[in-house]
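Components:
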Amino acid sequence: MDTTILFSYAGIVFFQAGMLIAAAPLVRMTIKKIKARLQNRVGPPLLQGYYDAFKLFRKESVISEHTSFIFRIAPWIIFGAAAGVALFVPVLFSFSPLGSAADIILIIYLFALATFFMVLAGLDAGSAFGGMGSSREVMIYSLSEPAMMLAIFAVARAGGSTNLSNIISHGLAEPGSLFLLSNIFAFAAFFIVLLAENKRIPVDNPATHLELTMVHEAMILEYSGRQLALIEWAAALKLTIFLVLLVNIFFPFGLMAEFTFSSAMLAIFLLVVKVSIAVCVIAFIENSIAKLRLFRLPDFLGIAFVLALIALISSFFV
Amino acid sequence: MPTLQATIQAIHKEFPAFSLDEKGKVSTMRISAETLKPIVALLIGKHWRLLTMAGNDERAQAGVFTVSWVFGLAKENKIMRLVLPVDPRKPVFPSIFELVQSALLFELEIRDMFGLTPEGNPDLSMPDEHREKMIRRLVHHHNWPEGEYPLRKDFPWNKRPKEEHVTFPFRYSEGEGVFEIPVGPIHAGVIEPGHFRFTAVGEMILNLEIRLYYSHRGVEKLFEQKSIPDAVALAEHISGDTSFGHSLAFCEALEELSGISISRRAGFLRVIFLELERLYNHVGDIGMLGMDAGFAFGGAQGARLKEVCMQMNERLTGSRILRGINVVGGVTRDISEKDSEMLGAFLDAFASDFQEVTDIMLSSSSFLDRLETTGKLKTQTALDYNVVGPVARASGLRRDARKDFPNAWWKEFQFQISVQATGDVYARFMVRTEEVLQSIKIIKTALLRLPKGERVMATQPIRLTEGACVVSIVEGWRGELVHVVVAGKNNSLYRVKVRDASFLNWPTLSRAILNNIVPDFPLCNKSYNMSYAGNDL
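Structure:
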């Protein structure tokens, strides 16, 4: 391969990943801001996520003496896994610059790795809340993962591959296929999974101070300082990646097949518009419905599973 | 025949040795330890209800401690006080838990504060995990040494006893999959301190043990040191959100003790302010229920509605939480013609605003799903524990001190007691919603009928008769508040016993939460919204 192409590919990989990592706290804070505006409140500044991270990075980390090495390495693994995924995801281009590595199953399991270590870290300190959070997280994850898999398979069947580049290119080549029944059901299922995986309402309340109701927050209660900043940034990154996957798989319009300046500008503009719409929808949902009872979650995620199953079955009848 | 007369006749017939001393609405009877239970059984049979229990140190006057049981007869507005002298050499008194379950905590409180042991109280001690019998103290902290009883007169109010470590035997369970979740007393939010220890299997709650009294300030002891104006201010600080309710109960007690009658206008103003307090707190609670269910709309709107109410309080009285208004003899703030119009217009706008918000909340199925069937308190349990206030009304008990023990002004107001049958969080939500609308109506009626041209503050000097005792009852927003005041020498207060609604309601929270799941506890707790400070004193 030509070295210039190699360099430009490497450039694309790091530019896209860097963009996702840099924008992640902003995306998360935008939801908060929109929620606040919908409630007639002013809300935090949009850059609050960066201020918080900056503050936390300068602070000391207090680590319980009862923890093992897992507690210390977990934040790095969690952030590493999310950052790793950021390298594969097609953000502005209709293909992943890492080619065949950008398999959706790899992405799902990189996130699973992060979840696994998050759960272990929650248990590690031995506090009652951490254990409670971890047990709930595992319950939710075990229900949302099959739904996500099936939804992905439904979309992948149309593209004939689980590689993201193929899925997206197929969607761009045949825009009509995006509005097939199977795709619409898969989209709905994937959206529910997005809410569950990122612990948004109605699955978990990211704004709560009530220890007994927490899931994500309960697992990270023992973290402080730099490690807390890493975990929070990773959570924001995961949300951003899920949003990018959602809009790019189901609405791939405007993604570049090859680089030109004007198409790059268009791609960035359309990405921002699409992600903003998704963010608005999430903020609106979070304002208009209550958190579900914990034992209603299987029903809720069951809906995602059934939708995904319908999507997969109907994809055989096209 | 009214129940009071029937009761008195029955008591005379069965216990001819005891004489009833009737003064106003309070009848006092000095009894002996053997006759306590038969008399209590007789009172219970005639629908008397235990309002409070108070210990007192009368060693200086009569050489004894006393324990009093204060019973109330609803509707007829009568109080019966049974006083039992307790010999300091044998400081025990019989527990009446077989007859009145809600006496359990009062008896433990008297043990901690006076060192009088309630014989037969099943909650008094418990084997800990080493099978040693340990006393389960109620009020005292781990650091408080055993044998120091702060409400005895020979205990100086500013004494700081040596710090010790007395362990508390919690109830515990063993078994596969059974684990304990200790929460608090320091919480993640800015809320009052309380320790909640859950025993759970998975998410299902088997037992909840509540340890309170982390905000004990010695209020009852402090009352004995204060001049009367300072004591009114102290009453306002019993529980910040019930500032007006508690100071009203205290002022009414002192007015009765000193024979001061307040003007009709002042009485009506007190009705208005009491309902304004109910209004802002209920609205805040409704919002907080939305917040804790993760229903952002309800949370935000509730906070806004509470804020406009509190701003209205400030415009009317200069205090957002209605402090500095009550004095013995009336109120310090009048409502002018202009303010009355402003308040009336505000209430009209507020009522439609509030109704719109609750309509939206109640049309959200996800919100209702969180409330319905959560934290059910059965009517029988509520009755056994003698629960009061919105919690009692949500469990089907038609109890409201404004109707049951009304003062002269409350008799002039017509309103409905809102009662729900189911006893779950939804029922408590609905009771509060209806009470907000009732309060608005009551305030508007009071504004219309406000007598003109009268002084709102009596100028008579306060003179207390030594040894006189009164009981005053006010329906605060959390429920019935009871103050028992015994006057001392030279206008001092010999003993003030305060009973917030929370004291009776707290224990039932551990009953309501049984067989619910751990993450539903905050919602259930919020639907109760009991006071820690008012309970701890």
